[in-house]
Structures are given as structure tokens and as C-alpha cells.
Amino acid sequence: xxxxxxxxxxxxxxxxxxxxxxxxxxxxxxxxxxxxxxxxxxxxxxxxxxxxxxxxxxxxxxxxxxxxxxxxxxxxxxxxxxxxxxxxxxxxxxxxxxxxxxxxxxxxxxxxxxxxxxxxxxxxxxxxxxxxxxxxxxxxxxxxxxxxxxxxxxxxxxxxxxxxxxxxxxxxxxxxxxxxxxxxxxxxxxxxxxxxxxxxxxxxxxxxxxxxxxxxxxxxxxxxxxxxxxxxxxxxxxxxxxxxxxxxxxxxxxxxxxxxxxxxxxxxxxxxxxxxxxxxxxxxxxxxxxxxxxxxxxxxxxxxxxxxxxxxxxxxxxxxxxxxxxxxxxxxxxxxxxxxxxxxxxxxxxxxxxxxxxxxxxxxxxxxxxxxxxxxxxxxxxxxxxxxxxxxxxxxxxxxxxxxxxxxxxxxxxxxxxxxxxxxxxxxxxxxxxxxxxx
Length: 439
What we know:
alpha+beta, six-stranded mixed beta barrel, six-stranded mixed β-sheet, globular
């Protein structure tokens, strides 16, 4: 009982202490309180971490310099005379194109003069008469070598072939020769989109004006089957085979043997601007030809066996080519005559025109009917002297195979993956590593 009483008294004591007013000393009169003491306390600002600006990924160059210890063997399977002929054509082109360039290869900027000197220096080495091993060493010492990264960035390049057809025809329409070869019509207008927007550089449209609006030009079907160009005096000549005429369009140039024996040389003038569509792919997708049978010869044979289907089959490719008469040919995109086996067609937006190149691939050994008996590797120096509607990007090369039926069989069989290199003479001030200093 006594303990409970003591605890009660202690509790009253503490409660009384808590209820007592707190007395604070009054501030001394006349002494102001500094404002910084009354201001709220603001914690110091913590600096934000400095992040570097995002790094844009470097685009893969279509041409990458090959290290000296990885250079290919520069073996050439053709005669020197044909290479001299092809090189002379590029030198003529460079005389006219002295103000163009520079051209980018990897991190280097290559001038027209360097491309020209590369051609002449190679000929000097090959003409020297030195043993093969000496010439190989001279080539490696003289040139920087750039390899195409291909369509997949892994140096894969697809090689195909093209040729110059020779057809029989007439300057007048007859019962035998009734399919027209057209020159470029006046109402076909070319629009270079790069003149309007920089982002459309190297792009163009071809069309015609209707009701003050530019619309696509007539398609192959509208021209060949509906006669939209008939009666306009646009016929350069007339031929007797519609299928051969179709493949003349895909090759871009050819010869027409007239009734008096004279050869009329024609070359590419322009196209209707419609996209190229492969008839071979159309037949393959439609199940008309199996993947095991597909070839240039098989496509041509199928077309001949189905003459009633030609409007549909040929009309699938809406692209149509107009021609012009030339004195000599075939003429490439650089304005010079092509050399069989030495001239290649590439994408001029990717690779420099007229430049010295080296290719490695396989080619067929054919019988008299054009059947491939075997395949053998080949390599040679070539020059980039032509272009093609479907030859786009770093992974496509078209090899000019020549004129006539043998060239047609070779070109129709060639579809191989290989390697493409460009050679540029080294600079005396340190070679390719110094080229990026020139802007």
C-alpha cells in the first residue's frame, strides 16, 4: 500500500513539471537579428552526372581498305591487249570528267587524277616483262586495295553477265518485221529530285504531264499491247522477234542487221521510269518453272512455248527502254565503248566510274547448246564503265560478256558470288592513312 502511494506522488510531480510554462529570455533591445539566420536552410544542390552526348553509329563504308597481309593474288586470265583497250576508254572519260570527285573509299577521298594515275601505273607494271612474282610484289607496293563490303557487309558480291544482242530487222514495217524499236518520246519528262531536296540526291522520276500534273509514263503493256505510241513517228527500226526485243531492253544496247546487210548500232537513250520486274521471278513464283530448272535459257524457252501468254508475262515487267542510234557500240554509262570481259556495270552512287577494279568469281564451261558442263574459278582486272537499272548497291556487279550468241549463253549462265576490289595508287606522303586529311 505504501509503495502505491509513493508511485502516485511521483506521477503527480512529473505531470506538474510538464504543465509548467516555459520562460524564454527576451531579446536584448536594439540588437537586430541577421536575416540569414531567419532564412530557411536550403541544402546545397547536388551536381547532375555529366553524360556524354550519344554517339551516332558510323555507317559501314561500301569499300574498306584491305590490310597488306590479306591481299589477294592478282592473277589475270585474259590478254593484256583487251585490258589496254578498256583502260584507254576510262582515260578518255577522265579527260572529260577532270572536275568531278573526290570519291570516298573507306575514310579516304580519292581524286580523279589518282584514279587516272592508277590505271596508267598498272599498265606500266604489266608491260614491264618482269617475272610474275616481281609484278605481284610491284602491285602490292604500288596500290592501296579496297574491297567491297557487299550487300550484307560481309564482302558478298553477286556477279551476273550481260551481252549485246544482234537481231534481224528493217527500217520499215513489214509482215516479217512488225515489232517497233522506239526512240525517246518528247513527252517523257525526267525530274531530278535532288534539285528539290538534298535528301533525294541521285533519285529521279520519269513521267508525263496530264492536266498540269506529272504522272507515271506509259507502261510496257500500254506501249506494246495497246499502242499508246503508235503513229508518232518514233520507230527507229522494226524487228521480227518480240521475245528477243524484250531481252534487248534488258541488255540496253544491241545491233540490228538490216535487210541490206548493214548493221544498225543502237544504244540506251532512256527508260519509262517504271520499276524493273523480273519475268524469271514471276514464272518461279507462279510455279511455271521449278527452282531446279530456272535459268536464262529456260525462261526464254517457256516464253516461246506460250506465245498467247506473252502480253501478261512480258507486261509483268512494266519497265520499257527507248533507244538511240550510235556510230559505234555498245556504249557504257561513261560514254565510251565497252570491252568484252573487261567492262563491268556497277552502281555509280556507290563506286567511282571508270575506276580500276579486280574481280574473283567462278564462270561456266559451256557446251554448244549453252549447258554448263563445269564451273572454274577466274580472276582479272576490270574497269567500272557502265550502269544498270537493277545493278544497285555494293553487292551487285554485271560483267559485259560481248556480242552475239556465245556471249548470250555465257551471260545467261553467269550468276555467281565473288569478290570485288578497287585499286588506287598509294600517296607518297603516307598512303591511305593520310587521305582523310583532304576535304
